[in-house]
Amino acid sequence: MRLILIEDHHRLAEMIRLSLEADGFVVDRFAALSDARRALAGVTYDLILLDLGMPDGDGVELIATLRRNKVMTPVLIITARDGIGDRVRGLDSGADDYLVKPFATAELAARCRALLRRPGGTLGTVLEAGNVALDTTRREVRVAGKPISMPPREVALLEQLMRQCGRVVTKEAVDAGLYALHAEVTPNAIDTALSRLRRRLTAADADVSIHTAHGIGYMLRAPDTSTASRG
């Protein structure tokens, strides 16, 4: 799950980023609307976290522009503006939720998950492939009904592969789903994560397998090469 955080207060932004990354999100952070617009034009995000009082403009204007251009990515406003008029203006511009500073990072993460559980969102399903099940909301993995411990990055990688079970997921798509834009990633980071995920699934007697399409990407295979989901 990839989020864009548009917040100019560095200390707060870093606190939010670290907290959400610990919850398994990939976070790209920008301190100006101009930089955020460029990122939004080239990257597909699952959720937008937006401060209204930015140094180069009002966040409400960005929301209105996105909605006029039919970009329906959920927007969660995070702001110090606590007046009823501010809330109404923000929500009427097209935002999906409004959170007033200061707030607990646990509440922010819960609101993110709630937005992503809405119809058409990223969360809210249990993905299944063979005897492997992944609760996309709780970020829990089970093999044959038994929970297995898995770090957030491997859970994110497994989710990507399960959502495309039986189809190749390109290296570029895997990279975009696992790492923020400015993250320092070693050349073999993805292969290392895949190797660890393979070993973990094998040790748990999973009946799925991960195959490498050399130079292209990776594919998860289940006994019936399909993935089902339930709400």
The H-level CATH homologous superfamily of the largest domain, spelled out, is Response regulator
Question: What's the rounded overall pLDDT mean?
Answer: 88
The quaternary structure here is: single chain
Class by alpha and beta content: alpha/beta
List the helices and strands and how they pair.
Layout: E1 2-6, H1 10-22, E2 26-30, H2 33-42, E3 47-50, E4 53-54, E5 57-58, H3 59-68, E6 75-79, H4 84-92, E7 97-100, H5 105-116, E8 126-129, E9 132-135, E10 140-143, E11 146-148, H6 152-163, E12 169-170, H7 171-178, H8 189-203, E13 209-213, E14 217-221, E15 228-230
Parallel strand pairs: 1-2, 1-3, 3-6, 6-7
Antiparallel strand pairs: 4-5, 8-9, 8-15, 9-10, 10-11, 12-14, 13-14
Helix pairs in contact: 1-5, 6-8
Provide a short characterization of the protein structure.
This protein is of the alpha/beta class and 231 residues long.
